[in-house]
Amino acid sequence: MEAQSTAINYLPIIFQILVALGFAVGTMAVTHMIGPKRKTSDKLTPFEAGIKVVGNARQPFSVKYFLVAILFVLFDVEVIFMYPWAVNFRELGSTGMIEMFIFMGTLLLGFFYIIKKKALDWD
Amino acid sequence: MNPGELICYILAGVVVISALVVVLTANLVRSVFLFFVTLFALAGLYVFSLADFVAVTQVIVYVGGVLVLMLFAFMLSNKELLNSLRQPAAAKLSMLTNIPAGIVAAGVFTVLAISTKGLQLAAPSGMSLFPAGMLNAGDNTIHLLGVRLMTNYLLPFELASVFLLMALIGAAHLARKGKEST
Amino acid sequence: MNALITISVLAVLVLYLGLYKANKALLPVTLLGLAVALFFTINHWNVFTGPTFNDMMSYDNFAVAFSGITITSTMLILLLSKGYFEKISDHVAEYYSIILFSLAGILVMVSYHNMTMLFIGIEIMSVSLYILAGIRKQDFASNEAALKYFLMGAFSTGFLLFGVALIYGAAHSFDLEAIKMHLETNLQTGQAISPLFYTGVVLMAVGMAFKVGAAPFHFWTPDVYEGSPSLITAFMSTVVKTAGFAAFLRLFATCFYPLHDFWMPVILVITIITLFAGNITALYQNNFKRMLAWSSISHAGYMLFAIVSLGSEASYGVFVYAIAYSAASIIAFAGLVLMQANTGSDSFDSFNGLGRKNPFLAFTLTVAMLSLAGIPLTAGFIGKFIMFSNALSSMHTWLVVLAVINAVISIFYYFRVIVAMYFKDAERAELEIPLNFKVVLAISVVATILIGIWPAFLPNVI
């Protein structure tokens, strides 16, 4: 089973995920179990700085946040493209550098456009 | 069955079951959060297929980006809209309207099952799919990928930047609160 | 390659011109840039030596011919757009820029030599179109069109990508030539071709049929075409459709040719369904724009003939047909845009009495309708003739019989426009036709009639 020689490298990550999940779930479960429970109707209502709750908490977000999220995904993809280049940075040398700069330059043009267009201004 | 295989099968099981629940559950918010599980388990399967880079991409782009975008979409839409999107409890696989989609899905699945059955899958890791000399277990795939991306596949790589630029402009244009949409 | 770089740079340039409030310069700069790109493209004529850029692209005559048509059609459509986008929104530069990006994707689609290039070309083109379909943010129909197009398009891209992956699994290459070699050697030595390959071919056919709007994958077409702004619809139904067929033909005629016996029946069935679905539904439309949408589906059926019968004339046939169809459609959409701007309606009735008030516009529309219907002495006839004779030479006699029946059906709905223009009276004011419309109409009509009378005028590609 030679195939696992790489998969085995990820074993620590699996352990970490398990520990993280275990800790979160465990502490939540334990506090839930050992904490005292006294439920009254007052305690179960949402608390809003002492005043009565007005309206619905689920107000629609502004579309501006959505734009930020979309831009985040796009630059996320860009970063993914940089990863294989960065691994071989030395080997690819100046040619690789120029190639990457063209790639980055194209996206920077887009980023500059976004800023100039004030798409990220929140007023 | 050694521990590696066991983990692989567990991951595969998690993917299939969580994906089914994502599709079948009536509560959309729950589907989105379960989708996290599906995508993570899928990333694990990629690791077993010697595709480390794809696994990393999966986690960074899909889990870190696309799913966050989906959550934003939920926060953007108001509760009435979400309630109207909520499928009625009867919207199970047996619904009449789901039959055509079910037939197509079953058909595609059958064809795929038949066509992969003919392949010699000696090891569950899928090693024999690669002809000799193409990829070995110990290879640094990201290194090979990077070299290929910057030499043979340079043109698609640069065009990807054009594509991203275009998507950037389009997203900024459509998602912006312009004069015409206030 | 130069053309591709020119157009990509041009798109960014136009974007930045818009940013610095040089809105007057947008259209001239765009047209000039496209002319330069067209020049670079034509320069590649007959100098093909082999695939370039690590075998990613092959600028053969096929690529040059189709790049030429798409760039020219885009120029004509952009000429019509003077003052059009300004009415929709303030951000005019974005529209030009996204159309140019889409054209860059199209240039990749017509000259790819590698599956990755096909995929990225299609993606650049389609994602631009999703945005363009929805540029009327206030308009419900436009939003619906964008969303529908996006969902359907993303789904079909999934099919396409799945097909590419399966074919890679079987042939271990993305390169068209290598895949063909794999097929040929396997067929010669009697080795079984992996079942993955067959599945991949079918999935890719489904994906491409989605993109060109062939039945039974056409359901997005009418709504998207109707909801999008008319000039964007014109772009989609001419340039995009031409590019889709060029990509389709290149894939199946060069790469999957050895498996012709396997996929031909599939495409044959798609062709017949497309012809009947497009033509019969078009008969029942009362809206000119929707009729054009359905007629574009039926024309997709005629263009599929080339892929069914892959003779030596297949590329030439699609080439001529694409020119004829693009020219006629541009005229029709120009008429539609004028009509919408003046009367705000796009039903057949709004054309009543046009022949008396606007003889020139009525004449050009008549030529366009005749060409679309395939009446002799127009380019449409030559296109259909080449397609049919090609199909006859590959022994698809009954397919041609069905197609002729469809051509007869199509006459009914195309003639409704002509009848409305000349034989129905209505009180109407004369439409004012701007100069740029006159130029585009004249160019398109001359092209239609010239090819109709003297088809040898076009160089025989490939």
UniProtKB/TrEMBL annotation, chain A:
Compartments where found: Cell membrane; Membrane
Upper classification of the organism: Bacteria, Pseudomonadati, Bacteroidota, Sphingobacteriia, Sphingobacteriales
Record text on subunit structure and interactions: NDH-1 is composed of 14 different subunits. Subunits NuoA, H, J, K, L, M, N constitute the membrane sector of the complex.
Keywords on record: Cell membrane, Membrane, NAD, Quinone, Translocase, Transmembrane, Transmembrane helix, Transport
InterPro entries per record: NAD(P)H_OxRDtase_bac/plastid, NADH_UbQ/plastoQ_OxRdtase_su3, NDAH_ubi_oxred_su3_sf
Similarity field: Belongs to the complex I subunit 3 family.
Family annotation (Pfam families): Oxidored_q4 (PF00507)
Reaction(s) catalysed by this chain's protein: a quinone + NADH + 5 H(+)(in) = a quinol + NAD(+) + 4 H(+)(out)
GO annotations of cellular component type: NADH dehydrogenase complex; plasma membrane
Protein name according to UniProt: NADH-quinone oxidoreductase subunit A
Domain of life where this protein originates: Bacteria
Membrane topology: Multi-pass membrane protein
Automatic annotation (TrEMBL), chain B:
Cellular component terms per the entry's GO annotation: plasma membrane
Membrane topology: Multi-pass membrane protein
Keyword NAD: yes
Organism, scientific name: Hufsiella ginkgonis
Family: Belongs to the complex I subunit 6 family.
Reaction(s) the record says it catalyses: a quinone + NADH + 5 H(+)(in) = a quinol + NAD(+) + 4 H(+)(out)
Enzyme category, top tier: translocase
GO molecular function (one): quinone binding
Cell compartment(s), UniProt: Cell membrane
Name the UniProt record assigns to this protein: NADH-quinone oxidoreductase subunit J
Keywords: Cell membrane, Membrane, NAD, Quinone, Transmembrane, Transmembrane helix
InterPro entries registered for this protein in UniProt: NADH_UbQ/plastoQ_OxRdtase_su6 (IPR001457), Nuo/plastoQ_OxRdtase_6_NuoJ (IPR042106)
Transmembrane segments: 6-25, 32-49, 55-76, 96-115, 153-175
Function of the protein: NDH-1 shuttles electrons from NADH, via FMN and iron-sulfur (Fe-S) centers, to quinones in the respiratory chain. Couples the redox reaction to proton translocation (for every two electrons transferred, four hydrogen ions are translocated across the cytoplasmic membrane), and thus conserves the redox energy in a proton gradient.
Top-rank taxon: Bacteria
EC number: 7.1.1.-
Automatic annotation (TrEMBL), chain C:
Residues of the signal peptide: none
Entry protein name: NADH-quinone oxidoreductase subunit N
Localization in the cell: Cell membrane; Endomembrane system; Membrane
Stated family: Belongs to the complex I subunit 2 family.
Keyword Cell membrane: yes
Keyword Membrane found: yes
GO cellular component, one term: plasma membrane
Record keywords, A-Z: Cell membrane, Membrane, NAD, Quinone, Translocase, Transmembrane, Transmembrane helix, Transport
Reported function: NDH-1 shuttles electrons from NADH, via FMN and iron-sulfur (Fe-S) centers, to quinones in the respiratory chain. The immediate electron acceptor for the enzyme in this species is believed to be a menaquinone. Couples the redox reaction to proton translocation (for every two electrons transferred, four hydrogen ions are translocated across the cytoplasmic membrane), and thus conserves the redox energy in a proton gradient.
Gene: nuoN
Domain NADH:quinone oxidoreductase/Mrp antiporter transmembrane: 114-410
Transmembrane segments: 25-42, 62-80, 92-112, 118-135, 147-171, 191-210, 231-250, 262-284, 291-312, 318-339, 360-386, 398-423, 435-457
Membrane topology: Multi-pass membrane protein
Catalytic activity reported: a quinone + NADH + 5 H(+)(in) = a quinol + NAD(+) + 4 H(+)(out)
Assembly notes: NDH-1 is composed of 14 different subunits. Subunits NuoA, H, J, K, L, M, N constitute the membrane sector of the complex.
Domain of life where this protein originates: Bacteria
Protein's GO biological process: ATP synthesis coupled electron transport
Enzyme Commission (EC) number: 7.1.1.-
Main location: membrane
GO MF annotation: an example: NADH dehydrogenase (quinone) (non-electrogenic) activity
